[in-house]
Design a protein that fits this description.
Blueprint lengths: L10 H9 L7 H5 L24 H18 L19 H15 L8 E3 L4 E4 L7 E9 L3 H9 L3 E8 L6 H13 L2 E3 L4 E3 L5 E5 L13 E7 L9 E9 L13 E10 L25 E10 L13 E10 L3
Antiparallel strand pairs: 1-11, 2-11, 3-10, 3-12, 4-5, 4-11, 5-6, 7-8, 8-9, 9-10
Helix pairs in contact: 3-4
């Protein structure tokens, strides 16, 4: 129902602000277990028994939960001033508006949250040596369940991929690949978008509008980045793909608890000639090769630094495949 100045809130209406699981959502659906794209895994706020008076402390428990969430999502609220016994409390539109603001932020993956931190490297998948065709790897990120995956992404957690070129005998192709690596930067898979911290080069496939919630059980290409100039323009590329173990639906039990990422360093110019060590021009033996390249896998974890009482960070990262391909 709509409220106007002077109305008195009823117990069941207070309980809707606390516990509604349909839009407009109550605070427990936004920060508790939730479903769909809601939920942070936080302790639920208690509802009141039908017919009971709503105490100042009960109001304050709702407002505290809202404020704590807003601190994490970096939202500004207008309705959550703490109350004292004897204060008159009227239901106002600002409370519903503030809950909707928090729901939008959590559903979008808390993109303004600063209480997130890159974890240490969980997995390194390096090429076995220089390659003249491709280095392709797959890594899995396994959560304890679909709920835990949602809480991680909703709180601003991300899956991060970093690529380096460890070549010691750098070739012209290494130079091209290193430029692409710089343009890629950190690649992050978030709740509903993916991002790269670098810029430049040619975006051959742009799937950055896809995040965890958009993935299906077959690979989705999130980004294919190709060299845009120089000798090997259009022929050296980096490709990032991802999929989930279970396709998403509205119910929380259908959220994928395993995210698999496929990463490829590619060269497609068709030139595969190696040079002997005694060639008169002094050309490096692996002049037509790249690398070895090394894909590193991290998580960017939500923290409790700005309001959340607990966060989900238990993610197991494991190798699925690691293939270095060379022409015959």
């Amino acid at each position: 129902m709509a409220y106007t100045a002077g109305d008195t809130i009823l117990d069941d209406e207070y309980n809707n602000f606390v516990n509604s699981s349909s839009s407009p959502y109550g605070i427990n659906h936004i920060i508790g277990t939730g479903d769909g794209d809601q939920g942070l895994g936080q302790t639920a706020v208690a509802t009141v028994t039908a017919g009971d008076s709503i105490t100042a402390s009960q109001w304050n428990s709702l407002f505290t939960a809202m404020d704590n969430t807003a601190n994490h999502t970096n939202d500004s609220l207008t309705s959550t001033a703490q109350r004292s016994a004897g204060d008159t409390v009227q239901a106002i539109a600002a409370l519903a508006t503030d809950l909707a603001t928090l729901s939008t932020s959590v559903g979008g993956g808390s993109t303004s949250a600063t209480a997130v931190s890159e974890g240490s490297e969980d997995l390194s998948l390096a090429a076995t040596g220089p390659f003249d065709t491709s280095h392709v790897v797959e890594a899995s990120y396994t959560f304890d369940g679909g709920d835990e995956a949602r809480w991680f992404f909703n709180a601003g957690g991300k899956l991060r991929i970093k690529l380096t070129n460890t070549a010691t005998n750098s070739t012209a192709k290494d130079t091209s690949m290193s430029a692409l690596i710089s343009a890629l930067g950190n690649f992050d898979i978030g709740s509903k978008v993916s991002t790269r911290s670098g810029s430049g080069e040619t975006v051959t496939t742009n799937g950055l509008a896809n995040g965890y919630y958009d993935l299906g059980t077959s690979y989705t290409t999130l980004l294919e980045l190709t060299e845009d100039s120089g000798t090997y323009s259009g022929n050296i590329a980096i490709k990032i793909e991802a999929k989930v173990s279970t396709a998403h639906a509205d119910g929380r039990n259908n959220n994928g608890e395993v995210v698999t990422v496929k990463c490829s360093a590619l060269q497609n110019d068709g030139v595969t000639a190696d040079y002997t060590s005694n060639n008169v021009d002094g050309i490096a033996v692996e002049e037509e090769a790249i690398g070895p390249t090394d894909f590193a896998f991290h998580t960017v974890d939500p923290t409790t630094a700005e309001g959340l009482s607990t966060v989900y960070t238990n993610v197991v990262v494991a190798s699925v495949s690691n293939t270095t391909n060379n022409a015959d």
